[in-house]
């Protein structure tokens, strides 16, 4: 482990992204935070933004702030995010939650794809995405069916296997670009090509990929996308989600759920809905301004760093983690729950162990002389280590794996109950 620690320090010394760590609050030598794939830490600049949003915009200007930047904030923030996901202006808007945005876009897609009854996904998708589709199907009562293509290994699904399930009855293909448990990274461009050949639309969930891997929605021809901003975008707990609709498709789609901020003239207070043109039609209710104001600093940090640089370091760090796993954790009963091929892996590494939950509890519990390591747990046995290159160091990864080794060798995890916490 000594050699790996020395190597880690050398990698940190030559890391061009190392300067960004100081841009975040609450990071210290005693805390190794590996849960940025679930909730990103607080950018230091966000404090200043929120002080202005609360003290000046709300506190002093009050309702006048709607005409000083609040009203068009969802659109401006969407255009700011656009370059990170390969989207041109006027195609991204911040609104609602990921699940609500999925419902809005899926309902609009099914209406456009009238006569096609199949909605295709995989069995690796985030469960809330299933729930929204199932609720939509139950509400429409038009005979739609959700088809889940089974992963051969519980971790990944080759693009050609998913493509083979797309047929002339497929209305919509919806997948997570990066799978939440394993970190498997789809070849989204190949999925889009196969879907379009069959006349199907594609809706991608970018929650675990935006801010961690380069995305080219326009170039790949993606029809629609959704994502959250509280993971790698560091927008804060409960931060608003966003949605993307390619420009040529916007006027063909009308969501089942409509509200006044999506109307052509919201303040005409017409008793009948007339949808706005463009991406604005996918808004619904009054936007959560304070939450949206907190999102911008995290996006700006990623824009400044550049996604190619972020991706290069992410690959380096996840490769380093897997090397440590091979050398140190395999003999302790761990199995790799993420793809080895970096081209098919996002920015988190999943380690599987029968005692993963109790190991996780031991990692996050403070013990004098030991660092607190914060990963997260996903049932049934996944210990997820999230790598966020803007603030993660190689030395932290080495120390985290050493801490896992100590916990297992010394049987520290046996001090903890087996029952799950509400949030894991």
Structure description:
GO terms for molecular function: kynureninase activity; pyridoxal phosphate binding. Pfam families: KYNU_C. By secondary structure, this protein is an alpha/beta fold. It has two domains: 2-33 and 306-415, Alpha-Beta Complex (Aspartate Aminotransferase, domain 1), CATH 3.90.1150; 47-303, Type I PLP-dependent aspartate aminotransferase-like (Major domain) (Aspartate Aminotransferase, domain 2, 3-Layer(aba) Sandwich). Helix content is 35%, strand content 13%. The chain has helices spanning 2-13, 44-58, 73-81, 98-112, 127-140, 159-164, 188-197, 217-220, 289-293, 296-305, 307-329, 356-364, 394-409, and strands spanning 31-33, 92-94, 118-122, 145-149, 170-176, 201-205, 224-227, 242-245, 335-336, 348-352, 372-374, 376-378, 382-386. The strands form three sheets. The chain has a seven-stranded mixed β-sheet, with helices on both faces. A four-stranded antiparallel β-sheet has the order 9-10-13-12. Strands 1-11 form a two-stranded parallel sheet. A hairpin with a 3-residue loop joins strand 12 (376-378) and strand 13 (382-386). The protein is globular, with a radius of gyration of 22 Å. The model has no long low-confidence stretch (mean pLDDT 97).
């Amino acid at each position: 482990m000594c050699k790996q620690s020395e190597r880690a320090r050398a990698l940190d010394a030559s890391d061009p992204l190392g300067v960004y760590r100081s841009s975040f609050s609450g990071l210290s030598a005693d805390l190794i935070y590996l849960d940025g794939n679930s909730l990103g830490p607080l950018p230091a600049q966000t404090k200043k933004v929120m002080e202005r949003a609360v003290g000046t915009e709300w506190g002093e200007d009050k309702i006048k702030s709607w005409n000083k930047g609040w009203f068009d904030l969802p659109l401006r923030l969407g255009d700011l995010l656009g370059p990170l996901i390969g989207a041109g202006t006027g195609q991204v808007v911040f609104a609602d939650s990921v699940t609500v945005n999925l419902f809005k876009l899926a309902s609009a897609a099914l209406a456009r794809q009238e006569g096609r009854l199949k909605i295709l996904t995989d069995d690796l998708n985030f469960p809330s995405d299933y729930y929204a589709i199932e609720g939509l199907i139950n509400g429409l009562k038009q005979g739609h069916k959700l088809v889940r293509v089974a992963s051969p290994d519980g971790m990944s699904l080759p693009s050609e296997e998913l493509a083979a399930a797309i047929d002339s009855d497929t209305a919509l293909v919806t997948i997570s670009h990066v799978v939440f448990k394993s970190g498997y990274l789809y070849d989204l461009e190949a999925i889009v090509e196969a879907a379009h050949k069959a006349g199907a639309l594609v809706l991608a969930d970018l929650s675990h990929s935006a801010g961690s891997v380069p995305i080219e929605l326009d170039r790949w021809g993606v029809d629609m996308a959704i994502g959250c901003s509280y993971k790698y975008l560091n927008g804060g707990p409960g931060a608003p989600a966003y949605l993307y609709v390619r420009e040529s498709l916007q006027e063909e789609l009308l969501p089942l759920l409509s509200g006044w901020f999506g109307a052509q003239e919201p303040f005409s207070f017409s008793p009948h809905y007339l949808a706005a043109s463009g991406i604005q039609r996918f808004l619904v209710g009054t936007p959560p301004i304070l939450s949206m104001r907190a999102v911008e600093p995290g996006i700006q940090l990623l824009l400044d760093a550049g996604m190619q640089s972020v991706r290069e370091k992410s690959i380096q760090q996840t490769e380093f983690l897997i090397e440590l796993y091979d050398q140190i954790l395999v003999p302790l009963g761990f199995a790799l729950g993420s793809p080895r091929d970096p081209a098919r892996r996002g920015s988190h590494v999943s380690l599987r162990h029968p005692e993963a939950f109790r190991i996780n509890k031991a990692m996050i519990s403070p013990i004098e002389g030991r660092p607190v390591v914060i990963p997260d747990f996903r049932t049934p046995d996944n210990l997820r280590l999230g790598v966020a290159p803007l603030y993660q160091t190689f030395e932290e990864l080495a120390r985290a794996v050493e801490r896992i080794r100590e916990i297992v060798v010394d049987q520290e995890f046996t001090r903890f109950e087996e029952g799950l916490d509400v949030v894991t």
